[in-house]
Amino acid sequence: MVAAGAALADEVGLAGLTMGSLAERVGVRTPSLYKHVGGQDDLNRRIAALALNQAADAVGSAVQGYAGRDALAAAARAFRAFVLKHPGRYAATIGMEPSGPDDPLATAGRRLHDVFTAVLRGYEIAESDVDHALRMLRSLCHGFATLQAGNAFQWSTDIDESFEWLIAFADQGLRAVRR
Q1: Nearest to residue 22, comparing CAs of 11, 83, 92?
Q2: Is 178 helix (H, G, I), strand (E, B) or coil?
């Protein structure tokens, strides 16, 4: 049920995902969905956990065997590709707070966090600056990918070229703040 909801969210946007639209998609009556999920909030929460796990898998696979700028580039490209392919399920992750440390959402979030933290190890960032560096990377990658997914880059410059510029910018910034 969650996978079907995530796929539908990718098609119609998270705001367009309703219990009724999901029931129609899977060919059941809406009350039947409550055997699988506790309601719209529970569905969105499960989609968010699914998305974070899938993003962690994609980014983790992409960075295998790389370090430094190469790892950064692989992580950023994989994250962007995930958001562009799955904009609805990714949107479910924004602002969703775990209910506790054992919440599947928290576990999935830590997985993605750990992958990006591993990327930063190649930059020898001081431990006291790691959170700042992670927030910077998330802001850059999230911002670019969500703007692109929303068709916000409508001028003539090549979008891929702009993203490579973003990677170079982040790389130079991370090199500048080394221990």
Answers
A1: 11
A2: strand
Check residue 179 and give its pLDDT: 66
The CA-to-CA distance between both ends of the chain, in Å, stands at 47
User: Which H helix or E strand runs over 62?
Assistant: helix 40-63
The alpha helices in 94-158, defined as continuous H runs, are 104-121, 130-149
Please classify residue 6 by burial: count the beta carbons closer than 10 Å to its beta carbon, then call 0-12 exposed, 13-18 middle and 19+ buried. Answer: buried
Those residues whose C-beta lies under 8 Å from the C-beta of residue 63, and which sit 6 or more positions away, are: 71, 74, 75, 78, 115, 118, 119
Measured from the Cβ of residue 34, the count of other Cβ atoms closer than 10 Å reads 12
Spatial separation of the C-alpha atoms in residues 67 and 118, rounded to whole Å: 9
Token pair of 8 as six digits: 């539908």
**Within 10 A of 177 (CB to CB), how many other CB atoms are there?**
14
Give me Rg for the CA atoms of the chain.
Answer: 18
Per DSSP, the three-state class of 125 is: strand
- pLDDT tens digits for 121-141? 999 999 999 999 999 999 999
Whether the Cβ atoms of residue 59 and residue 79 lie closer than 8 Å to each other = yes
